[in-house]
Structures are given as structure tokens and as C-alpha cells.
Amino acid sequence: MDGRILVINGPNLNLLGMREKDIYGEKSLEDINRELRVMAMEKQVEMNFFQSNHEGEIIDRIQDARGQADCIIINAGAFTHYSIAIHDALKAVDIPVIEVHLSNIFKREAFRQQSLISPIAVGGIFGFGALSYKMAFLAACEIIRDQTD
Amino acid sequence: MDGRILVINGPNLNLLGMREKDIYGEKSLEDINRELRVMAMEKQVEMNFFQSNHEGEIIDRIQDARGQADCIIINAGAFTHYSIAIHDALKAVDIPVIEVHLSNIFKREAFRQQSLISPIAVGGIFGFGALSYKMAFLAACEIIRDQTD
Amino acid sequence: MDGRILVINGPNLNLLGMREKDIYGEKSLEDINRELRVMAMEKQVEMNFFQSNHEGEIIDRIQDARGQADCIIINAGAFTHYSIAIHDALKAVDIPVIEVHLSNIFKREAFRQQSLISPIAVGGIFGFGALSYKMAFLAACEIIRDQTD
Amino acid sequence: MDGRILVINGPNLNLLGMREKDIYGEKSLEDINRELRVMAMEKQVEMNFFQSNHEGEIIDRIQDARGQADCIIINAGAFTHYSIAIHDALKAVDIPVIEVHLSNIFKREAFRQQSLISPIAVGGIFGFGALSYKMAFLAACEIIRDQTD
Amino acid sequence: MDGRILVINGPNLNLLGMREKDIYGEKSLEDINRELRVMAMEKQVEMNFFQSNHEGEIIDRIQDARGQADCIIINAGAFTHYSIAIHDALKAVDIPVIEVHLSNIFKREAFRQQSLISPIAVGGIFGFGALSYKMAFLAACEIIRDQTD
Amino acid sequence: MDGRILVINGPNLNLLGMREKDIYGEKSLEDINRELRVMAMEKQVEMNFFQSNHEGEIIDRIQDARGQADCIIINAGAFTHYSIAIHDALKAVDIPVIEVHLSNIFKREAFRQQSLISPIAVGGIFGFGALSYKMAFLAACEIIRDQTD
Amino acid sequence: MDGRILVINGPNLNLLGMREKDIYGEKSLEDINRELRVMAMEKQVEMNFFQSNHEGEIIDRIQDARGQADCIIINAGAFTHYSIAIHDALKAVDIPVIEVHLSNIFKREAFRQQSLISPIAVGGIFGFGALSYKMAFLAACEIIRDQTD
Amino acid sequence: MDGRILVINGPNLNLLGMREKDIYGEKSLEDINRELRVMAMEKQVEMNFFQSNHEGEIIDRIQDARGQADCIIINAGAFTHYSIAIHDALKAVDIPVIEVHLSNIFKREAFRQQSLISPIAVGGIFGFGALSYKMAFLAACEIIRDQTD
Amino acid sequence: MDGRILVINGPNLNLLGMREKDIYGEKSLEDINRELRVMAMEKQVEMNFFQSNHEGEIIDRIQDARGQADCIIINAGAFTHYSIAIHDALKAVDIPVIEVHLSNIFKREAFRQQSLISPIAVGGIFGFGALSYKMAFLAACEIIRDQTD
Amino acid sequence: MDGRILVINGPNLNLLGMREKDIYGEKSLEDINRELRVMAMEKQVEMNFFQSNHEGEIIDRIQDARGQADCIIINAGAFTHYSIAIHDALKAVDIPVIEVHLSNIFKREAFRQQSLISPIAVGGIFGFGALSYKMAFLAACEIIRDQTD
Amino acid sequence: MDGRILVINGPNLNLLGMREKDIYGEKSLEDINRELRVMAMEKQVEMNFFQSNHEGEIIDRIQDARGQADCIIINAGAFTHYSIAIHDALKAVDIPVIEVHLSNIFKREAFRQQSLISPIAVGGIFGFGALSYKMAFLAACEIIRDQTD
Amino acid sequence: MDGRILVINGPNLNLLGMREKDIYGEKSLEDINRELRVMAMEKQVEMNFFQSNHEGEIIDRIQDARGQADCIIINAGAFTHYSIAIHDALKAVDIPVIEVHLSNIFKREAFRQQSLISPIAVGGIFGFGALSYKMAFLAACEIIRDQTD
What we know:
The structure is a homododecamer. By secondary structure, chain A is of the alpha/beta class. Chain A has helices at residues 21-24, 29-43, 55-64, 84-93, 130-148, and strands spanning 4-9, 46-51, 71-75, 97-101, 123-126.
């Protein structure tokens, strides 16, 4: 299979495995990415990773993805809940989006229970820790396969 | 692997493939279940299916699952948004719960954007159509494996 | 004229004429149905009646109406205000719906002033007691005539 | 039968049949009134019609109806949603009121979903286009018959 | 004492003494005005009266009062609660305003408990029936006396 | 003393003593009922018990109580918070109602802090575990004594 | 004329004439009371005055007024906005109540725009400074005269 | 049995039997206390009574109860709904609290439907008039028995 | 260029230059219109002006504009915030609408921050005083040019 | 340095060191005051302390401070959140106010997150336990120094 | 004329002409800027342009404008709705601000209908596409002329 | 004493002493930092300062502080009110946080009255201008001393 998937991680996700392990689990972001790379190799999908604590850099990266990615997997972290600018960028580039959360955001603070990513996403996965990303990867493959059919 | 998964579908999901196909897709519930059965056989997991338009029957079924299932995958349909009784039943039986939605409920009416299942679920998947169930199945297997470790 | 009308009455409407007569009037549900049957005979319309206190049974009955009814007249009683599942069922079967209320729900408790039936109905009638049903019957005939034109 | 019905139409209803036909239908207000006049003649009911874009004129007309009308059928148009003054006038003259709407206001903008007429009306009809008025006429006749009994 | 007082009454107040006497009392608006005229003669104050059911006419009358009145006593009736335009007119002409209500609006419907007149009035009186106007008259005299000091 | 008391328990209360014991206590529903039966025998009151996870069955049971019970003790469980239909049924049958809760619902989730039973109940008891039912029984006896005086 | 009027002033009103004179005016509470005493002597009405910064003392004083006063004039100061206990006391003693405010509370902070006194008062006066009390005195006389007629 | 119960009654409850008898019943507070004293004597429980219209005195009394009472029965009257200070005092002394209301507060004004006592109470009883206190007494005995076990 | 522009001004705008000059500026409405007429002459556009304090007259004028105007520039004044009837009239006539405000309504009272004109306008200009109208004129010309292209 | 500081503590703060030590710390109010006295002596500032559970006494004390204190440090305890009367008293005496809280009120119940003291305070300190008072003392000294400059 | 105008465009506006053309039009940001440069040259105004997807860079740019620009034209894009930091920067530099939007934000999602720029702007223009900028330019010239008068 | 304190200042605080001096005072950020450095030297505490207008840079800086700082003093400026990402970063690094504000944010716009920093801070200080930082410094020292005990 042919296809390019861009995985974007938002603020503080670079600390995965180092902070609040009871919520976010033991694995580092690099651990998760490594596992995804293995899966990607098997499926022969090209895979790119990006993490930033800067909203503007995430917007730039999304814009650059136009014509360069067939699917975006995004865990926008805290930006999920207030960045209309990332919402707009994702809408503007017109690439299928899959929303991912490590934790079950609906068990947490009220301000984490609204997502500005959901309304422009194909769908989403929350609460399964690192597994959430793998599930997103499978969904991304399926979406790409549908596109190329 | 050993394990028993119960898949519960709520009201109107028996009409899948027959109604509003632009929202819910072409596949019937039976189609989806058949695919899940195939996956279950491969993984050697026992799988049970239940669909009802009656809130009370769903509660009964959840209660009966105590000691009979290791994971519940539930698409409570419209009950997702107002059945505190199903919420209570799921909480009472103390079996890991995975929430599933075919459509992206966050793109729809305001009254569909609150879920009473999420706060008692491990995690959830929404918006990937029939694929949502398969992803839930994989997550269920992972959860069961973790339990039996 | 040809046509099949299904009249659905929700919870507690079986007590009509027996309870709170100052709000709901003296006539029993059977009285109302008898009058509708007479009107139906004159217009040569087939008419079916269903009452239940069980949300699930009402959903089942609505689903069974697919291809069996040309118009649904529904007084969902208390379910009007919270049953998203009945809302979904009516939307799924894609039959014209007419909403009926005996009392003027806008003179009553705040929780009775939101209807989940209205957004999927062609139109509605409230406040005219038993007459509300007759008016709904006339509207149903008109709708059926328009369909068959 | 004896009786006098006053039909009041509020702002912009004089444009019926000329504007937004997908919402309000093809018939002009004059068409509707003509049909009502025919029905009135059959029933030997006196019928008066009034339309205005001016809130004050509608209030004046309602006040003049004291002792001159046995029932008021009113489609207050946009005034339905904010004119407490028309609400007060209708309440003051103490004549039975029937509320009418051509469109299903519950499918439209949020600001159209509150009615200040409903709380002082006997009942109401919405969503059946021109037929709404005919149904209101029938209800008015019934109300007048009950009064004169 | 020298001074000119303008008394403005809003919609449906022309029906005083004829409608809902338990709320508004037995006296007609003419009765009230006659009593005020007597008081005015004693105090040698010029007094003008205006009533209208038309928001626009009330605004015109307020505008005409510039330079012609030293104090406005206003019972804006239902307009009290939604007419920003009357609020603006009163603010624009810059004449002291006294708000009057026959009934205790704080015992009535929720929509009657917000006043757009209060924020631009010197003060107000509510709930004393016809006496409310006399009290307002006394306050108006005091205000005029203060101005002319 | 003469009198018939109907005790109704709603969804998931059949699991009492088996689930979330820190909230609901150690006793099973059968334990509680047995204790009530003993008390009833002493007071020579007839006592009937009903539990269901089905809203419709509870409504049916309430309707059947007309003329068959002098007082209803109800713990509607989760239905307390959203079943307008049970509210309506209790209101329709016109039998004194006593509301019971095992736990202190005001210490729990926001959605559990509104009761649709309270407005139609004589009174209520919450938070005393199994004792709540005994207290309700005493109140029921008092109410029946007052009726028969 | 015969009659006993009790004037109650709430917290911080003992500072009148000493604080925020732009809002509350130059007169001290004693100045106001002296003027009222003069008016009372002319009308031959007995008059009692009470001021306290203590909610409990105000409640005690209201309770003591049973059978001892024919009318209560109250400026509850800040307690106006949150003391349900004073609301209850006034309701319990069943003496006509007149609400007074020196300033126009509707021009001030949001938390000053709800009154718990209004719903149990005959009527009220706000915004006329010391004059507000005199107007209240006149209204009180009128109310007493009506009672004794 | 050994144990000390403190019964606290809030503002205006000293008027019981004298005011609004349709809501609060015929019995005076002294009548109720006398009945409780009889019950206490039978159970050999020490019982103390306190009533005040002063929030501060109630707080002082609660603080004094530390080490002097095993259970507090409180009807805080109007303070129930806004006294965070009483809430804090009850929480600080760490004695089991039982909340009592004579009337069914859920049938009354909106501002009476929130209780600041409930969240720190073991449980509560509302709506049974004087009987509410007796029920609370029984619950208190049970709580003390559990403590001393 | 060919084209007909209708400029509508709502209530109290006839007082421009005479009231609250710090908010609305020194120019009278006639001054503004004169300047617009000059601009119109240059561009050879026909221009009509209408001002009224009467909501009904504004609605009438808008209706008359059908087929007589190619663009409407409207400053509905206070009606902006509550006249659903003007909203409906503008929508009904289907002529491009430009919304104008002299002041920056977003710096003013909360009730001025919602506009019922905006949702049916092409666009709007606020805060530039008399210049707002000139800018609207330029936009109107552009819109007309686009239409005639 | 010259200056007089008044320290006011509200309800239940007399229990400091005796209740909920995890929230409020181990020190008694007397401990805190002793430490402040030492600091005051060093800075040669006069210091007065007042604690009460009675809102009225706190108001009286604040009023007495006029001309007797150069700065008020207040921890109004629960009154912080609802006593408009204390807010008014502080505003009336026109002495600089410093707000203090032992705990971080923003981590606690929703009803503790609004302060009526903040809007009339110079500034505030929360969350540092007994240290909060010392910090307030330093700020008070600074404020007094600025005044006397 | 002399004067320096700074034009700031926020996130995703660099994609103009490339994305969602039905909402934002065909022109690129460079096209718009070119047209503005031509206008500026005619008016002999200095003009600077800045676009960034980074909130921080926009703040830096605004701060740098102090003393370097006489007017800021800003289309803050998505930041309009949540960046209090940009609001603060614009307020801090004290340069006249003109708000611009290509689309009519009042026809779009709820979260786009609040602007944090409006309260600190002189005025604004929305809905006229590229023309909005030109209108803003004219307003800017007028503002600069007024300053230099 | 040993210890490392990191002082973080958010957007626009680099303009201190240059903008809105009536709100923020005359001192520049450098002035404040200099004073803090002096205090730090006395206490022999290591002190680092960071200011940025970029949310992302602040997050990066907070993350870098892990293991490098014993206490963070933060004035997040406008980010206080909406940056969930900074909230998350502070929570992730698990270093004690002290919140500082120069102005009394509770006297300002509604959108400035919610802090996302408070819920994760030890405590906070607001309203004392530059002094706020010094007080925070003292609190920080106390916190560090407690840690090292």
C-alpha cells in the first residue's frame, strides 16, 4: 500500500513517560513513534512525526502538509480545547484528520471536555493510552485505501 | 488467547444499512457482527452479541454479564445521551467498557454531544463507521490480555 | 382515497378520561380512537392504533411501520421531552410525522416545553384536547393526498 | 351556527407566496383568506381579516375585538417571539386565541423557538402551511360551539 | 411652582379599569389622569398626558418633549421589558424620567422582571395601583424644584 | 391498622449488596424487604414489593396500583433524574408518594441532584441506607392513619 | 387617622450622610427619621424606627411586630439581595410591606438587581434618596386607611 | 442506650404553628420538642434544643457542640440555602448531621431548592411536617448505635 | 454606473448631532445624507433615504423596495437588537443588505452586542461615525457592480 | 513607622488548628496573631485583632474602624462569598483593605470561587496558610508608608 | 498626506485564495496587499505588512509598532476569538486599531461570534472579502488625518 | 539557604512601566527583577528570570526547569486566562508554583476573572503592583525551606 501519514503531537506530549504516569502511561513519545514506524514499515506506508509546544509551529506544519500527506493523526494536547487556529488550519488543508487522546478526557476537568478538533475530524479515539495511536494508524490506512480505490 | 467479549447495540442500530446511509454507512449490523466473529475466531476469543430497542433489556443484559464477560463493547445509540440507568448498570457490574459510535457525534445535534457512557468507559472510538467496532475489538483484546497478565 | 395512518400514543395516555380531567378532558383514549375510526371510514383510510408505556415497544412499532404506513400521528406523552431514541426511530423510518398534544404544553412545567418530536415532524397541534387528534387526522389525509399526487 | 372569528396576521405575512416559497408555500395571504371565507360561509360564521406590519395596529385591532369576536386566530409572525405587548393585549380582551404558524418554527433559528402567544392561547398549530389556518378555523368553530352550548 | 410634567402610558393601559381588575385595579386611565390634573392645579404645574399602543408614537412623543417638559413620568407597559428604542429615546432627550408600574412586576412572569427603563430613570415606583402615579407626581415636583433652585 | 403499601424499586437496585457497597451498603434488596415485611406484620399493614429495570414496567405497575394501594414508597434509582413518564404516572394515579434514596444524592454527580419524583411526592428521605426504607415505612403508616381518620 | 408604622433599616444605613454621598445623599438616617416623625404627627400615625447591621436582630424585630404594626416600611440594605430569612420573616408576620431604596439599584452592580423583598412586598420605591421614605410613608397611610375602611 | 443529640432550628421556626399553617402545620416548635423529649426519654438519650434567628448564634452553638453531642439534627430554615458559614461550622466540628425540613422544599420557590446542608449531612428528610423530626430522631439513634458498636 | 441604493435609518437617528455627541458625533443625519448624495451623484447612482421611529414603517419601506432598490444600507438603531420582524422583512425582499453603526456597539451595553441584522447582511461596518455610511456606500457600489457584471 | 492595622477574621476561623488541619494547617488563630504582634512591634505599628462568627458584629467592627485604622486585613471566611453587607461596610469606611485566605480557594467548591471582598480590596493573598497573614502585614505596612509619604 | 499604516494578518490568512474559496474568495493575500500598496502610493501613505501563524510573533510585531505606526489594520483570524494577549498588546501600544474580517463572522460557528479585538478597536468591517481591507485603509487615512489636524 | 527560583513573566509584561501606568505602575520589569535579585542575594538564593510573548517558549522554559528549579513564580499575563497548555506544563514538571498579578484582576473585565494557573498553584498574590513579586519571593523562600527541612 502507498500513502503518507503525518503524526502531530501537541504541547507537553514530549514529556510522555516522564510526567503523571498514572494518567498518561509509562511509554515515551519516542517509544510510541517507534512502534508506529514498525507498523508503517509492514504496511509500506510513509510516516512523518512532529511534536511542538508552539501553536504556531503546529499550524505551519499542518499547512506544509498540503499535497504531502494523505492523512493526519493529531493529538493536539491542551490545544485541542482552545486553538481555533489549529481547527482552521486543519480545515483549510483539506486532509482527512484522526483525533487521538491518550487519556479519557471525559473523566477529567470540565475545560477538557470540549474539542475543537472533533468537528473537523473523520473520527477519534480516546482513553487507550499508547494503543490509541495504533488504532488511529489502522484507521488512517483504511481511509487511505478508500481514497485510492 | 482466552476471553469473552460482549457487544451491545442500542436502539435503532438494528436498522443499520437500511436508514440514513450517508450517516451510518451501507453495512447492516449483521454484516458488522459477522466480521467481528471472524476476527474473534482468529484471536480465539468468545464473542456474544446483543441488540435491543428497550433500555430495560439492555440493563438486564449488562447485569447478566457479571462474571460472564471480560469486556463490554457498547454502542448505546440514543441511550448514550440520557440513560443514567445504563450508566449505573455498567458501573455496577465492574467490567471494562469500550464506547463505540459509528458517526462522529460531535458533528451532529447539540443533544448528541454529551455521553453518559464516556465517564465510566476505559476509552472510546467514534466516527469510523463499521471500522469503529473492529478497533474496539482490538482494544478489547489488549485489555483482556492486560488483565490476564 | 387510499392511505394508511398509524396513531401512536405514549405513556399514561391509556389513563385518558380517568386522570387529571381538568388538563386532559373527559374522553377515554378508546373514545378518541372510535371517533377517528369513523372519520377514517368516511375518508376510506386504513387506520392503526398503538399505545404503550414502554419506550422500547414504541420504537419497535415505529420500525415495523416502514412500508406499512403513509403517515404517523404521534402523541409521545412524556417521552416527547427526553426520548432521543424515539426521535431517532421516527427519523430512521422516513414516514411523515404529525405531533399531537391534548394539553397546551407551553402553559405547563418548564421540562415539558421542549419537544424532541417537533424537529422531525411535518408539523404539530397542541392544546385542543381530543380535537387535536381529529385535526391531525385531516392533516394526515392532506399529506397522503400530496404524496399520491 | 352563529359566531364571529377574527383572523390576524402579523408582519411580512402580506408577502406570502412572494417570498421564500420553500418555507412558506406558494399561496398568497389572499388565497388563504378566500379559502377560509368559503369555509366560513358553509358554517355560517362571520369572518374578519386583518394584517399589519405595525405592532401598534395589531394591538389596536385586538382591543377593538372586545365584544366583536368570539375567537381570534393569530399568526403574529415575528412578533410571536418578542411582543409582550401583543401578549398583554390578547390576555386583556379575554377572547379565546388560536395560534397558527405556516412553518415548523421548531426546525428554524433558536430565536424563533419561544412563543409569547402560546402561554395565553387555547392551543396552536404549526408546520402545515396554508392548511394550518383551515385547521385553526375548525378548532375555532368547535370552541364557539362549546361557548354557545 | 413652575414646571411641565409629561405623563406617558404605554400599550394596553387604555384598557385600565376594563381588564384584569384584580391585577390593575378598578380605575380607568382617565380617572387617574383626572386625579393627577387636580394635584397639578394645586401645585400650579402644567401637565400633559399621552397614551399609545404604538412604540413609534411613544418615541416621537418623547423626542417632541425636548425643551417642552421638565420631567417625564412613564409607565411603558409591556414595552418596559424589550423596547431598547424607547430606552434610547429617553436617554437622548435628557429629561429626568420617573418609572411607574401599577402592579408589582416582581411578583409576575419572569419576562416582566427586567426593565429597560430603570437604568435611565431617576427612580421608580411599583405595585401601588393608581397611587403609584400620585407618588410619581410628588417625586416629579421635587425633582423640578431641585432643578429650579 | 388497615392499609396497603406498595414499595417500588427502580433499575439496578436488584444488585444491592452486590455492587458498590461503599455507596449502597451490604444489605441485599431482599434483606431490606424482609425487614419491612416484619415491620408491616407488626403494624398489620399489607405490603407489596416490585423491582424492575424497565421504565415501562414501573409505569404499568404504578397504574395498576390505582385503588389497590394507599401509599407508594419509591426509590426510582436512576429514573429519578429523567423519567418524566414515571413522574406523570405517579401524578395520574393520585396515591400519596414517598421518595427514598439509599445514598445522599446531593454528594454525588451533578446529574443526580435533580429529582423528578420530589415535586409530586409528599416528602422524601435520602442518605440513610437501608434505614431510609424503614423511615419511609413509618411515614407511610402515618399518612395512611391520617387518611383513615 | 389611626395606625402604627414600623420603619426598618438594614446594614450600613446608620452611616447615611457619612459615606458615599454621591450615591446616598447628604442626609443622615436621623435626619430622615425626624422628617418622617413630623409627617407622622400631622397624620396622627404612630411611628417606630429600627436599624441594625445584624440580620438576626432584624428578623427578631419583624417577628415582634406581629399585632404591633399595621405596615412595615423596609430598606433592607444589602440584605435585600440575599437574606431569605428576612423574606421568610416578613412573609410569616403577614403585615403589609413597602420596599424602599435610596439609590436606583438597577443602575448598580449586577448582584444588587435582584430583590428578595419585592416578591412579598405590596410595592416599592427606589432611587429618590430621602424622598423615597416620604413616598413610602404616604403609601403606608393609604394602605392603613384601606385596611380600616 | 447512651448518646447526646442536639436539635438546632433556624430562623422563623420559633413561629411554627402561628404562621402559614397550610405549609408548616399546626404544631408549635415547643409541641414538636416535647414529643421528641418523650421519645428521647424512652430511648434514654440526652437531648438538647436550640433555636435562633441569628446565623452567628447558630454557628457558635454548633462549635460548642464539639465533644458535647453525638449527632446534630438541623433544620436551618432559610439559612439552608445560603449560609456557607453554617456549612463550614458543621463540617468543622465533625459530628454526624441529619438535615430536616417540615415542608417539601422541592415544591417551592427555585431559591429553596438548593441546600448547603445536604453535602455535609449523612442524610435528610423533607416534607413530612412534625413527623420529619421524629424520623430524624430515629435515624440519629441508629447512627449513635453504629458509632458505639 | 447604474444602480439604486436605499438608506434606512431607525429610531432616534433623526436626533443625530443633537444628542450624546460624544458617542454619535456632531453631524446631523441630514449632513450625512447630503454627503452621501454628493458621492452618489459622482457615481451616478440613484439614492433614497428613509428614517423612522416606527418599526412598522421600516418594514413597509423595506417591502416597497422590492424591485426598486439594488442594495439596502441600514442602520436599524435600537431595532438592530430585537426586531425579528425587520430581520424577516430584509430576508424576504432578497436585496443585498449592508449593516451600519455609527458607534462601536461592542464597547457598549451587553444588550447592544447582539445584532439580528448581521446574519442576513452581506457585511457590516461599525464605529467610524459618519464615515461608516460612506464606507457602506462604497461597498454598495461594488456589490451593484458585481451584480450587473 | 506609625500606623494602625486592624485584622478581622470571620466565622469558624476561631477553630483554626482544631479542624480540618490538612486544609487550614496546625496553627491556631492565637498562634498567628502572636506572630503578627511580634512583627508589628518590630515595625512599631499598632495592631488590633477581631474575630466573630456574627456577620453583624463584623460590620459593626468595620464601621468603628473609621478614623481608627489605616489598613484592614480581612479573612472573611465563608462570608467572603455571600455577604454583600460586609462588602458595603468595607466600601463605606474607605480604608485600604487586604484580602487574605489560608487555603487556595480556587482548588475548592465552586461556591467558594467568587469573592465579594476582592472588588473592594487593594489586593489579596491566598493559599499560603499562616504565611498569608504575614505577607498581608508586609503589604499593609507598604500601603501605610505610601499614605504617609 | 503623511502617515504609517501597519497591516497585520493572523493565522491561516497566508492560505487566502488557496482554501475554502467560497468563504474567503479567490484573491491571495499578496493580491490584496498589492492593491493596498497601490492605494497607499496614491495617498502617499507608508504601508507595512505582516502575517504570522504565531500569536507570539504578532504580539512582538504590535509592540514594535509603538512610535512606528499611526494606525493598525488587523485581521487576527482565529486569534480574534481567544487571544487576550493580542488584545492586551493592542491596548498597550495605544495606536488606533481597525478590525477587519473577510467573511461575515456572524453567519458562522458560535465560537466565531465573539471578538476580543472589537472592544479595543475604533471600529470594524466584516463580510466584504478583499474589499474589507480597502475600506479599512480609507478609514485609517481618515483617522490619521484627524490625528494630524 | 540554598534554593533556585525561576521567575516567569508572560506576554506584554516586557512593556511594564511603559504602558497603562495607572493599572500596572511606574516600574519596568527590569526594575522589579533588580529588586528581586538584591533580595535573592541576601537570602543566598539562586534566581532566574524569563519573559516571553510566546506561549510555546514559556512552555519550553517550564519544561526545562525540571530538576533545575525549586519553585516557580509566574505572572502568566493574559495566558493566565486561557492557556491550558501552560497549566499542563506546570502540572507536569511538578515544581511548587506561586501565581502573581500586578493588578487586582477581580476589578477588571469578566474574562480576566478566571485563572487556569490558580488550580495548580500553591497560592497567589494579586493587586500589590511590584510588591506582589516580593511577597511571592518570600513565600517561595518559605516553601523551599519547608522542602529542605
